Amino acid sequence: MKKLLIIIFFLICSNSIALEKNTNFKDKIFKKAQSEGKIIVINSWNEFCTTCKKQIKILDQAENHFQEVLFLNYEQTENKDIAKKLKIDYWTTIVIYSGQKEIYRSMGVTNKNELYLVIENIIQNKI
Questions:
Q1: 3-class SS at 97?
Q2: Strand order across the beta sheet in which 101-107 lies
Q3: Taking the CB of the first residue and of the last residue of the chain, which one, N or C, has fewer CB atoms within 10 A?
Q4: Is residue 64 predicted with pLDDT exceeding 80?
């Protein structure tokens, strides 16, 4: 009985930290945005990563705030082809492009002000 309760507790806890996010990264969309010189924010995440969950919350808010910026994301474990193409080895990696050029890359950043400042500076061509 004790083992059964432990298993049930683990399942409940696991489900409470799982992310409800879908991959929206498509190579065709990415390449088109690059060719148009757009600013593109790419986030790699994992379903059970608590840092990823914090980042996604911030990036969802940023997507509403920076409407001229394209926000793309993908689940790192399930989309190894995307990770390889972008040379992203770890969950929690955020990469920002301005057109064809990679401008910023970080891992594990969960500070909203820091991310917003980077995006604002790229928009204003300060980076």
A1: strand
A2: 70-75, 39-45, 93-98, 101-107
A3: N
A4: yes
> CA-to-CA distance for 86 and 117, rounded, in angstroms?
23
- pLDDT bin (cut points 50, 70, 90) of residue 126 is confident
Judge whether 76 and 44 are in contact, CB under 8 Å.
yes
Count structural domains, the chain: 1
CA 33 to CA 56: how far, in whole Å?
21
Nearest by Cα to 40 from 51, 50, 29, 48: 29
Task: Answer positive or negative: Cα dihedral of 93, 116, 62, 110.
Answer: positive
Domain that holds residue 71: 2-123
More confident residue, 15 or 102: 102
Mean pLDDT of 75-80: 94
Query: How long, in residues, is the chain?
Result: 127
CATH code, 16: 3.40.30.10
R_g of the chain, CA atoms, integer Å = 17
